[in-house]
Amino acid sequence: MNTIKKRNISVLGSTEFTGIKLEKPTDYAAGLPAVKVALQHTFKEMGVVRSFRALAHMNQKEGFDCPGCAWPDPDKPSKLGEYCENGAKALAEEATNKKVDNDFFSKYSVEELSTWSDFQIGKSGRLTEPMVLRPDSVHYEPISWENAYKLVAEELHRLDSPDEAIFYTSGRSSNEAAFLYGLFIRAYGTNNMPDCSNMCHESSGVALGETLGIGKGSVKLEDFDKAEVVMVIGQNPGTNHPRMLSALQKCKENGGKVISVNPLEEAGLIRFKNPQEVKGVLSTGTSLTDIHLQVKINQDVALLKLMIKKLTVLDTEKGNVFDHEFIKKYTNGFEELIKSIEGYSEKELLTLSGVEESVVDAAVEILANSKKIIICWAMGLTQHKNGVDNIKECVNLLLLKGSLGKPGAGTCPVRGHSNVQGDRTVGIMHHVSTELNQSIQKTFGFTPPNKEGLDTVHAIEAMHKGQAKVFMALGGNFLSAASDTNFTAEALQNCELTINVSTKLNRTHLVTGKTALILPTLGRSEVDIKDGKQRFFTVENSMGKVHRSKGMMSPASGNLKSEPEIIGEIANAYFKNNHPVPWKQLGEDYELIREKLTSVIKGFEDLEKKSKGSGFYLPNNVRDLDFSKLPNQKAQFSVCHLPKHEIKKGEFLLMTIRSHDQFNTTIYGLNDRYRGVFNERRIVLMNKNDMRKYAFEKLDVVNLISSYDNIERKAINFLVIPFNIPEGNLASYFPETNVLVPYNHFADKSNTPISKSIVISLEKVE
Ligand SMILES: Nc1nc2c(c(=O)[nH]1)N[C@H]1C(S)=C(S)[C@@H](COP(=O)(O)OP(=O)(O)OC[C@H]3O[C@@H](n4cnc5c(=O)[nH]c(N)nc54)[C@H](O)[C@@H]3O)O[C@H]1N2
Ligand SMILES: Nc1nc2c(c(=O)[nH]1)N[C@H]1C(S)=C(S)[C@@H](COP(=O)(O)OP(=O)(O)OC[C@H]3O[C@@H](n4cnc5c(=O)[nH]c(N)nc54)[C@H](O)[C@@H]3O)O[C@H]1N2
Ligand SMILES: [Mo]
Q1: Which GO molecular function terms does the record list (predicted)?
Q2: b vs e for 600-630, b when ≥16 Cβ sit within 10 Å of the residue's Cβ?
Q3: Which residue's C-alpha comes closest to atom 47 of ligand 2?
Q4: Residue 224 Cα to ligand 3 middle (Å)
Q5: CB 437: neighbour CB atoms within 10 A?
Q6: What is the 8-class DSSP label of residue 294?
Q7: With contact defined as beta carbons under 8 Å apart, do 622 and 212 qualify?
Q8: Residues of 711-720 as b/e, b for ≥16 C-beta within 10 angstroms?
Q9: For residues 153 and 181, is the Cβ–Cβ distance under 8 A?
Q10: How many CB atoms lie within 10 A of CB 329?
Q11: Does the reported pTM lie above 0.85?
């Protein structure tokens, strides 16, 4: 019998300050500084020669897909390079020359590593060999691949029910890996497939599914060339999807207008200096936003209702503001919507939104005179209690204007991880799909389970209660990404076994179950060879286009396995050849996986051939204006309610956002250049009037406190920074602030944690 050591783990790591420097926020994105910073990062991590070689292949047709965000590549990639500053940083992070090997783990215990900051942990380098943390130890030690597979298989056999295991996926995995993973999980017997989307665009999936019949966006990249208006709402493209700025620039060059809706005036939305054009780098850049609506946090529904109300008045006067032909032919619920809007007063909506009336009127005038509108959004809409309604209200606006299913118009939820959308398409989901199950049964000869599985928040709860005992993650950093860090830590620490298939070390490798495994895997940029033959895989971008990705860098270590290989081997160790699926063979032969994908997933017919070159679009019913699967075979208007917040005196609404120097929990550096914050992440942005009102000075040290269900949660040591943000609102970075987000407070229907509207108070540290 093993002894079990109670490890002394620091869940949050270092909360020390790092030496802040403040400058004026920038009013343009990209330009020369972006090129400089991109190259600094790649040179430092990868060396000069490897940097240029890799960057030349990123997002090119025969190259690899950027490991950063999911923004699509143009059909003709730029010769100056089809990547952005943050894509270059993502590459540098993955292709770094630094290594985390056995020597590293013998030197540092998990106890010591856990006291480091996420930044320090991430900068340690690439994982190079499979490692195990035994119940009686505080040091990871090497384990052979065979024994690692065996350990997983034995633990899975030991569970009383397959539902005691949780299988998480982060959106970096390829279609092939995700498909095989989902297949194994179903063959094992559970639908417990929480996914990073649960914390991300789940609200979009639910809202779009219910209103338009597909949980994905409808626009293609070329629609930006034709749009009369692009609304960017709750999204910071300058940092998180920089290549989107080129699309906005094109829209503007063709006479289109950009309206942004955001509590912050994000640099990328003001002006853009395109680093892919010589003139872009040298000139003052393109001014991108025509109208900025500085909405208060979570008051988008109020603002959208106000705009719809004003448009309704104009439509009654002029008669041609709404597309009545479209409304009649394709939609359901118009009268109910208009009636419900009549119930609100303009004054009430205006006050709630926090925007000046003249600015709203200017936006309404543009919308009234346009027929081709695209609405783009991201986490600023999804991560609220009413996240689903936020998006439904956007759909209402598009339906009223007939801005769907035609060039230059439509929905554009801008996805996060580079293949998060593809993972879902190929079967990573906790819901049961009868169609998918039947298709799997027909192709593979086994019956998948038909009990609903657990999503992220419910998986945490199950582990916390001891109802789930094995946690496996295909990528990601579950501990830091999920809400309620301390609660999530207890949940993971309750497990018998935690398994992480990862490229880089992160906090989830340190806050573990009794036994923990690190299974190191190849990154996107790395060459993947089997029996002398180079393998490639496929991914789906944010606009539903599937294409190939083929790495070219030499792998970080000779002892890495690809994700499909690892999954195939685990499945093989579990089933011991006693199963109709040829697991081992599938794990090694991606062509065979694609053949199966072709027969199981609709739209993937002929995948091997069609994925060549710039790839192919998956079917999309909104593009075809086919709403046959919805009630009355029509697109649905929705009546949405205003969100309710009980905010007492001294309390604020906090949004937890990304700095310009991170990819989710991977911290590239400590500089949020556009916001003028350097060398520090423990900051909270506050309106000057609030500072005056509550007697805060610049750089005062405060603790942030949330109090839900009478439980106090505290994030300590943050510096107050005066900023252009609405009164009553605060902004701070995630993951440091995830301790404040209660695990049991999430969006209705989508269960996405409320990371963008947390009620908090501040405590001054003297
Ligand atoms: N470089 C880089 N790229 C990334 C990522 C990264 O971390 N780094 N992450 C990737 C992932 S997984 C995702 S999901 C995306 C995230 O992309 P974003 O959603 O752009 O990321 P956030 O920083 O969370 O920014 C949310 C934006 O919404 C605004 N906002 C917050 N609350 C509200 C609100 O109530 N209403 C409105 N209108 N706006 C609001 C904030 O001010 C901010 O500008 O980016 C992807 N790309
Ligand atoms: N408070 C707050 N919390 C949030 C958010 C927020 O805005 N506020 N945003 C949420 C969102 S939108 C998301 S998507 C989640 C992100 O949640 P996750 O996807 O779980 O987190 P990441 O930080 O993207 O995961 C980074 C890790 O993935 C691993 N990795 C990188 N590349 C690969 C690969 O190719 N293969 C494998 N196997 N592993 C790889 C590395 O080990 C790295 O440490 O966080 C959510 N959490
Ligand atoms: Mo995301």
Answers
A1: 4 iron, 4 sulfur cluster binding; formate dehydrogenase (NAD+) activity; molybdenum ion binding; molybdopterin cofactor binding
A2: bbebbeebeebbeeebbebebbbbeebbeeb
A3: 481
A4: 22
A5: 17
A6: -
A7: yes
A8: eebebbebbb
A9: no
A10: 12
A11: yes
Determine the Cα angle at 45 with ends 39 and 49, to 5°: 65
CA of 378 to the centre of ligand 1 (A): 6
The pLDDT of residue 1: 42
Q: For ligand 2, is residue 504 a contact (CB within 6 Å)? A: yes
- Positions in the chain short of pLDDT 50: 1-2
The alpha carbon dihedral of 623, 625, 629, 634 has a sign of: positive
Type of residue found at 305: K
Task: Report the candidate in 702, 660, 711, 664 with the shortest Cα–Cα distance to residue 684.
Answer: 702
Query: Does residue 379 have its Cβ closer than 6 Å to ligand 2?
Result: yes
Tokens of 450: 């038909």
The pLDDT assigned to 66 comes to 75
What's the one-letter identity of residue 580? P
Give me the phi and psi of 42, to 5 degrees please: -65, -40
Burial 259-279 (b: 16+ CB within 10 A, else e): bbbbbbbbbbbbbbbbbbeee
- DSSP collapsed to 3 states, 703-732: EEEEEECCEEEEEEEEEEEECCCCCCEEEE
Question: Which letter does DSSP use for residue 644 in this model?
Answer: -
At 550, list the tokens: 């083929």
Sheet of strand 291-293, all strands in order from the earlier edge strand to the far edge = 291-293, 257-261, 229-233, 373-377, 410-413
Rg of the chain, C-alpha, whole Å: 25
Whole-number Å distance, alpha carbon 12 to ligand 1 midpoint, is: 22
Instruction: Report d(CA 47, CA 573) in Å as an integer.
Output: 40
Instruction: For residues 601 and 444, give the distance between their C-alpha atoms in angstroms, rounded to a whole number.
Output: 13
Question: Which atom of ligand 1 approaches the CA of 417 most closely?
Answer: 12
Pocket-testing residue among 66, 172, 704, ligand 2, by greatest number of atoms within 8 A of Cβ? 172
In 533-689, at which residue ranges do the beta strands (DSSP E only) sit? 533-534, 537-540, 545-549, 616-617, 635-636, 651-657, 662-663, 666-667, 677-678, 683-686
Cα of 235 to ligand 2 centre, how many Å? 18
Ligand minimally distant from the alpha carbon of residue 660: 1
* Coil vs helix vs strand at 124: coil
What the chain holds in terms of domains, given with CATH numbers, is: 31-93 (no CATH), 98-196+419-617 (3.40.50.740), 202-413 (3.40.228.10), 651-764 (2.40.40.20)
Q: Residue 451, exposed/middle/buried by CB under 10 A (0-12, 13-18, 19+)?
A: exposed
Report the DSSP beta bridge partners of residue 336.
none
Residue pair 409/59 in contact by the 8 Å Cβ criterion: no
Mutate to test the pocket of ligand 2, among 665, 667, 751, 754 (most ligand atoms within 8 A of CB): 665
Beta-bridge partners for 413: 377
CA distance 172 to 500: 14
> For residue 170, which atom of ligand 2 is closest to its CA?
19
Query: Distance of CA 471 to CAs 8, 56, 167, 667, 675, Å?
Result: 21, 38, 6, 24, 38
Give dist(CA 340, CA 206) in Å, integer: 22
Contacts of 555 (CB under 8 A, 6+ apart): 522, 526, 527
Ligand 1 mean position, distance from CA 92 (Å): 22
Ligand nearest the Cα atom of residue 658? 1
Retrieve residue 561's tokens. 């396995």
* Ligand nearest the Cα atom of residue 67: 2
Residues with CB under 6 A from ligand 1: 68-69, 86, 200, 233-236, 239-241, 261-264, 266, 295, 297-298, 300, 378-380, 416-417, 655, 657-658, 662-664, 756
Nearest CA to ligand 1 atom 22: 657
Ligand positioned closest to the Cα atom of 753: 2
Contact present, 272 and 249 (Cβ < 8 Å): yes
